[in-house]
Structures are given as C-alpha cells and as structure tokens.
Amino acid sequence: MTPNIKDKIVVITGASSGLGEATARLLAEEGASVVLGARREDRIRMLADELTGRGGKALAVTTDVTEVGQVRNLVEAAVEAYGRVDVMINNAGLMPQSPLDRLKIDEWDRMIDVNIKGVLYGIAAALPVMQRQKSGHIINVSSVAGHKVRAGGAVYAATKHAVRALSEGLRQEVKPYNIRTTVISPGAVATELPNSASEPDVAAGLHKFYEDFAISPDSFARAVVYAMSQPDDVDINEILYRPTRQEL
Asked: Which residue in 156, 177, 226, 241 is the catalytic one?
C-alpha cells in the first residue's frame, strides 16, 4: 500500500468517467474510502457497486456541481457515512471549445458554471469541515490550458487559469488549519472531454489530437496518489504533466 492513502475519506466530483473514475478505482485499491459525485447516477452507482464488490468502500451521491446545495449534500453524505472528509477532489469539468467569433455564449456560461463555480462550490462545501478537523487536502483540476492559451480555446483556458488562481489563493488562506492544496494540470488524457465540443470542425480536430496524443487517465490517478501520499508536512501545490509527445 502507498503511504498516507489507506483509510482516507476522499470525495470526488466528476466521478462517473475519465479522471474521476480512474482516481476512484486506484484510491479504492489503495484502501481509501471514496465518495463519488456525478450527474449520471447509473454510472456512479455501478462504479460504487463494483468497488464495494471488490472489498473496497464506496458511496455514490448524485451531484450536479453547478448546484451549490447538491455539492454541499455530497460532502455532508461523506461526513455522515464516514465521520470526516480527508480529501476533496474538484474534478468535474467540460471543454466545448470554439473560436470566440462563433459566439457560443451558452457554452461559455456552462464552462464558467462547471469549471469555475463547480470548483468554488466544492471548496465551499469541504472547507468548513476541514477547518473543524484542522486537517484536509483539497485537489483542484486545471489543465495545460491553464498555462497556455490556444486560439479556439480562450474561454476554456480562462476557466482553467481561474482554477489555478483560486488554488493559489486557497493555499495561502488555509495555512492556519493544516490543510494542504494541490492543483493538477493534465495535458491530453483519454476522457470524454472532446465529446463536449459542438462545432463539427472543432470536434474533429480535438478528436484527432486526442487519438494521436492522449494517454490513460490512470496518469492522473497516479498524480493524485503522489500528492496525497506525501508526509503530512509536505504540501505538493502544483503538478503539470503532458503526454511525452505533446508539444503545446
């Protein structure tokens, strides 16, 4: 077993697929109890049943991260079931990229709601619990797009830059409470993200890029385990990684 993982209570948003699902699987294997939040109830219940069937501990809570009450309920369910929350992973996100002149304003709003507000709502739900505990770890998911802006991806990049800014402010504010913070910025990882692009030409380009470069979501799960497994006096604040062949 990896140090500092066993018996940890970990809440994961966006747990129905991709990064969240892979992380739930690995953490459960390492002995953590995982609380799975996502909109697709059938997916997270199937995953929870699978993990518990293998001897792990998992709880599924239907959650739309754009609804602050639902995110609060997710964390409260974890506390009710297990007595505390050790790690909050704000992973839910979407990426309907398009050039700004396509004026996909509804998609801009949706990205802001999920990618920024969803992270804020996760922080708002978990932070009071961790302050009372005087311990905890908040892991926020950004992207390579949170470091580099590409034409056609301005709004998505803006949301992921915002996640990094929020994470740095959070890091500074939680020092009195012994809370650790990590922001993880993956490059191309094989998930459902490209499926959210509604513009046919953009979607085709994204799918081709991911087919050529994307690596397994297990890569993200291992990054989470690395950050969590450090001794309590070590705070891994930022992880940026890409497929070895990815240039940008």
From this structure: 156
**Which residues constitute the domain of residue 229?**
9-241
Which is more confidently placed, 200 or 48?
48
Strand partners, 36: 12, 60
Terminus-to-terminus CA distance in the chain, angstroms? 35
Count of the separate structural domains present in the chain:
1
Task: Report if residue 56 sits inside a domain.
Answer: yes
Can you give the pTM of this predicted structure? 0.96
How are strands ordered across the β-sheet holding 9-13?
Answer: 57-62, 33-38, 9-13, 87-90, 136-141, 179-186, 238-241
User: CATH number, domain at 53?
Assistant: 3.40.50.720
Is 73 within the bounds of a domain? yes
Residue 116 Cα to chain centre, angstroms: 12
Look at residue 203 in the predicted model and tell me its pLDDT.
Answer: 86
241 labelled catalytic: no
